[in-house]
Design a protein that fits this description.
The protein has 134 residues and is α+β, with helices and mostly antiparallel strands. The protein has 3 helices and 7 strands, in the order ββββαβββαα. β3 and β4 form a beta hairpin.
């Protein structure tokens, strides 16, 4: 089992004009190769953890992706620099985060080097999962 973590500064947009800087820890565990976890406000008193598909994050680096509780999309500024936006929550309560896309893309590339795309299920310990079910 191998893990990959990376913490980056992100902006939590509380309101349209109220940005709050926080830390966000990205984590990947080869024991759960289809998922990534984000720990928002990882250095704060009340961190919030979201787990969603690694593929959703990957697709969101190129185009709007996701339905339901998680949406991810890129945005380019006038200089061509790319930001990544992640919205989590449901229709009544959502949180919006902005972060630089490059460190996320680099971290994600490292995760795919650990468990290549299409090989996620080859690394699952099916015997252990079967025992958990019984």
């Amino acid at each position: 089992m191998r893990k990959c973590h990376h913490t980056i500064p992100v902006t939590h947009w509380i309101a349209r004009r109220l940005p709050v800087p926080i830390a966000c820890e990205f984590s990947f565990d080869s024991a759960d190769p289809l998922a990534v976890a984000l720990l928002f406000d990882s250095e704060g008193e009340y961190p919030v953890r979201w787990v969603f598909a690694r593929e959703l994050l990957s697709e969101g680096l190129a185009a709007r992706s996701g339905q339901g509780d998680v949406a991810v999309w890129p945005e380019y500024d006038e200089d061509g620099d790319r930001s990544l936006w992640i919205q989590v929550g449901n229709a009544r309560h959502t949180a919006l985060f902005e972060m630089p896309a490059q460190p996320v893309a680099q971290w994600l590339a490292h995760c795919y080097a650990m468990v290549p795309r299409g090989q996620e299920l080859a690394h699952v310990d099916w015997d252990q999962l079967t025992q958990l079910i019984q």
